[in-house]
Specification:
8 helices, six-stranded mixed β-sheet, 21% strand, alpha/beta, 28% helix, 277 residues
Length: 277
Amino acid sequence: MAGAAFNPLDVAIRGGFVQQVFPVTFPHTPNFDVAGVVDEVGEGVRGWSIGDAVVAYLPVTAPGAAAEYVAAPADALAAAPRAVELADAAALPSAGLTAWQSLFEHAGLQAGQSILINGAGGAVGRYAVQLAKQAGAVVTATASARSAGRVRSYGTDRVIDYTAAPLPEAVAGQQFDAVLNLVRTGQEETVRLAGLAADGGAFVSTTFPDLNDAGRGVRVVSVFSRSDAAQLAELVRRVDAGDLRIDVAARRPLTELADVHDEAVAGTLPGKTVLIP
């Protein structure tokens, strides 16, 4: 193990809030994003050798990466990017794949379309902005003042400070071909967000919205991301080509994992955190 990325879902799993969706058996080793070096190859495995640097999105309910060693399914692995520190590459798999699948599999985003990304300052949002711009979309993103500069640096066409005015008011009646919601919202706010999707568009959310039908032909999709080695390899290719940035706010020793959880609950975690054994 070189690094394990922390995700908010780790807190929800630990607290038992998503037991019906992600049932785990305790004791459970958390963290499903991994970067490291192959130390041993299982019987019958082809394509990987001892010493290979790899990244993976591990099965969420399986024993995870918060350890010195982890057993990873061979078909989940992709070669690690060479353009960043190996530990930092742990920040790519689940967040990058969630962004990719949300945009292209669920929203069906195409060049020339418009998209609103709500929560662009978070781990998934940062990748979503970059990937949407590379796809030729017109991107409007919400972010706090703290992360607005970074979101702009990804090339977004417009950044809206969601703390300054209600979002429907800030967009002044504009609607979008796709709305990607990455923020936990109440029912009323969810309905308002879905209302920003154009007729026949898509409202895609990673936060399990309490909304089944938005009307007007708008598709409502709740995203459950999955491990996909081929898609992950494409994300790695873009990192190595300089087209996709991995941003890590902090590298912390694995012994501080409990503190990281506490800071995440308190809302004081500064951004994507990688834990190093």
